[in-house]
Specification:
317 residues, mainly beta, 7-stranded mixed beta sheet, 4-stranded antiparallel beta sheet, 1 helix, 23 strands, 46% strand, disordered N terminus
């Protein structure tokens, strides 16, 4: 990111036309947490714009909850079978939900949600920013969940069967306090227990396996002001990388770059006046016809001046 007891909850859809407003103090989560899902245009100044280059807009939402202060700071995203959503937050929360699509297949909302505190190897909820700053996740084929943390840099594996996490192989490298392994994702072509990790500031990547260790991969080319914040392996040996930048004059900018092992294949740049915020989460869902649905999720940093945005784009190679 730049800029507890386990709780179970049902995320209900509601409408909210206002930007997210944080409660004055934390509100305990419980049954019936409402998630406000408000549709947003790709370009508020031109509501008819429906694509950015080869990427077709498939709907977008502003997400918030009036019932809890925990639905903020969402840092990475995985989407599994049936639209199952998994996300982690800067404060050590695990959020699960399910996508709702309309009849045209466009993003319409979230349902069937749960919120829980990530735990440490002793089974106790993570406490404080130093322990709970979860930034990346990789959902492996067997259901195990890998989570990368910064501040105190580490990768933990949360077993699919439940129970406390255990350490997973970590690249042998030094990372700044607020510039760790933000990019994390499964790498099924390298093995069922394989994952790819990327450093935010350097762009250095590694391929790791739970059963062995990490080996260095390519350094992702990026402007010096951009950070590498998310990764998604794609069919046909391609990979999508998400680059994020911000400054007080231009605001947030994000680039979704699709590459194979030789060159850039496609690129989408989001900046004002397009709908954009602090995007640092990426998920890719391939369709039978070869189209890939990309979902981008923004981290609002627990700030009322920012939004939790979930945008969908379709790209066909």
């Amino acid at each position: 990111m730049r800029s507890g007891l386990v709780l179970a909850a049902a995320l209900a859809l509601s409408a909210c036309a206002q930007p997210v407003t944080l409660p004055a103090s934390p509100v305990a989560a419980g049954p019936g947490i409402a998630i406000a899902a408000t549709a947003v245009a790709l370009n508020p100044q031109d509501p008819d714009q429906d694509r950015v280059g080869a990427f077709r807009y498939a709907g977008g939402l502003v997400l918030s909850s009036p019932d809890t202060a925990r639905f903020h700071g969402l840092s990475d995203l995985a989407i599994g079978a049936g639209g199952a959503v998994t996300s982690v937050s800067d404060e050590g929360d695990l959020i699960k939900a399910r996508l709702v699509l309309d009849k045209a297949g466009r993003l319409a909302g979230l349902t069937d949600g749960r919120v829980a505190a990530l735990t440490n190897p002793d089974g106790k909820p993570l406490q404080g920013k130093q322990e709970g700053d979860s930034e990346g996740l990789a959902l492996l084929a067997g259901g195990d969940l890998l989570v990368s943390f910064e501040q105190r840099h580490r990768i933990w594996l949360y077993p699919a069967a439940g129970g406390p996490p255990r350490p997973a192989p970590m690249p042998e490298a030094a990372f700044p306090d607020n510039g760790g392994l933000e990019a994390l994702g499964p790498d099924p072509a390298s093995g069922a227990d394989a994952y790819v990790a990327g450093a935010e500031e350097s762009g250095q990547t590694w391929t790791c396996r739970v059963s062995t260790s990490c080996t260095p991969g390519p350094v992702i080319a990026k402007p010096p002001e951009s950070g590498l914040v998310a990764v998604a392996r794609l069919p046909q040996g391609r990979t999508a990388w998400l680059l994020r930048a911000w400054d007080p004059v231009r605001g947030s900018r994000v680039s979704l770059v699709v590459r194979d092992d030789k060159a850039e294949v496609a690129r989408m740049d989001l900046a004002r006046p397009l709908t954009v915020d602090n995007f640092e989460a990426l998920a890719a869902v391939p369709a039978k016809d070869g189209t890939i649905r990309f979902y981008l999720l923004s981290d609002d940093n627990f700030q009322s001046s920012q939004r939790t945005l979930l945008l969908a784009f379709d790209w066909k190679p």
